[in-house]
Specification:
Structural class: alpha+beta
Shape: globular
Radius of gyration: 25 Å
Strand order of the largest sheet: 1-5-4-2-3
Largest sheet: 5 strands, antiparallel
Strand content: 5-15%
Number of helices: 15
């Protein structure tokens, strides 16, 4: 029948539930399902510095799947780090010739920068990646931005770092500074901080170099990145600054320059509270589009306490401390929580972490 009488509603609901339970029987699986793949194992060997082992494993994997570009990229990287320049160049040239996406362009460019060779090609590839990603960012409407548009900021930060590091390698330290500062402000990772400290050192900016080194060295984050720690200590010694004590795992660092590293601080901003509301506190989610001056930030309310809508005007006045390289104009879009309390005169914005996919995925689920 097309309709169920009201008297049979409970019976009908029970029938539907029984049918759905019969169809949708799920087994929940947990774990890293890529862990056993050749690509995952090869990348793990690369991270461990076992380049010969990585080559052997990835060569076999490529023989089984000659069309897998990720395996080809990992194998080229392994060749580069052996080093076997001839085979690395052949692998990378084939990838570049095959209509590469921005991730491949950036990865190959970074490997060349790391090896400090073929810097002309590296500059070309990195510039192409930054240009394309920047252009895509400008085309995004804040109102209709999807999760992938927000996650593009991670890609842009990585590409800015690569291009900045290549410019450092070529001796163009002033240009390197612009890209590396932009990358570090958007996504303050230790490796980018090291690149930026190297650049400040070359520019004679000893105070700025020391500040970043001290901030990075004062927190316990080098368990898996000892090479970065060693380089930062070396920078401190070269500029005549005393390295800080080894990081302690007890409590939080009291270093006044901690904000230079911690992403939770780099993505936290204060603004005046202009909203009068009932209750003790209110919270809502907003999204923000940021461009280089003189373009003002654009802010939109997403969801949460409706009394917070008017706080958008104050958000648009915030100095988000985000530098931009001028060569390739871009638009930064981010989202986060704004919380206000009736007991303070300020409200606090905390952006989602740059690479936090679950938070950005959630934006489409409860937009009001």
């Amino acid at each position: 029948v097309r309709e169920v009488p009201g008297a049979q509603r409970a019976e009908y609901s029970a029938f539907v539930k029984q049918m759905e339970d019969d169809i949708q029987q799920w087994i929940i699986l947990f774990g890293d399902f890529e862990q056993g793949s050749a690509l995952h194992k090869g990348q793990a060997l690369l991270n461990q510095g076992k380049f010969s082992d990585a080559v052997a494993l990835l060569q076999k994997a490529q023989g089984e799947d000659t069309n897998d570009k990720q395996i080809a990229l990992a194998l080229g990287t392994a060749y580069s780090r052996l080093p076997d320049e001839t085979k690395a160049n052949a692998a990378f040239d084939k990838l570049i010739a095959d209509k590469p996406d921005v991730a491949t362009l950036n990865a190959v460019a970074y490997e060349y920068a790391t090896a400090n060779r073929r810097l002309g090609d590296a500059l070309d590839y990195a510039s192409r990646a930054v240009e394309q990603t920047s252009k895509e960012s400008l085309e995004v409407s804040l109102k209709s931005a999807a999760p992938d548009d927000f996650l593009r900021m991670k890609t842009l930060a990585e590409e800015w770092d690569t291009l900045g590091w290549i410019k450092f390698r070529t001796g163009n330290y002033a240009e390197a500074e612009k890209y590396l500062e932009s990358s570090y402000s958007l996504w303050p990772r230790p490796l980018v901080g090291q690149h930026l400290a190297n650049t400040y050192e070359k520019l004679g900016k000893k105070r700025e170099a020391s500040n970043i080194c001290r901030a990075l060295l004062s927190v316990p984050l080098f368990q898996q990145e000892p090479q970065i720690q060693d380089e930062l200590v070396a920078i401190q010694r070269r500029i005549g600054a005393l390295p800080p004590e080894p990081p302690s795992t007890k409590g939080k660092s009291s270093n006044s320059d901690q904000f230079l590293l911690a992403e939770d601080s780099a993505r936290t901003f204060k603004m005046p509270r202009k909203v009068d509301f009932t209750g003790k506190s209110k919270i809502a989610r907003f999204k923000v589009a940021i461009q280089a001056e003189p373009v003002s930030p654009v802010v939109e309310y997403i969801s949460g306490d409706r009394e917070m809508r008017d706080e958008a005007a104050e958000l648009a006045k915030v100095n988000f401390r985000q530098p931009f390289p001028k060569e390739y104009p871009a638009k930064i879009i981010r989202a986060g929580w704004v919380s206000c309390s009736k007991f303070t005169n300020d409200c606090t914005l905390i952006f989602f972490p740059t690479a936090d996919k679950p938070s950005y995925d959630s934006l489409t689920k409860d937009v009001e």
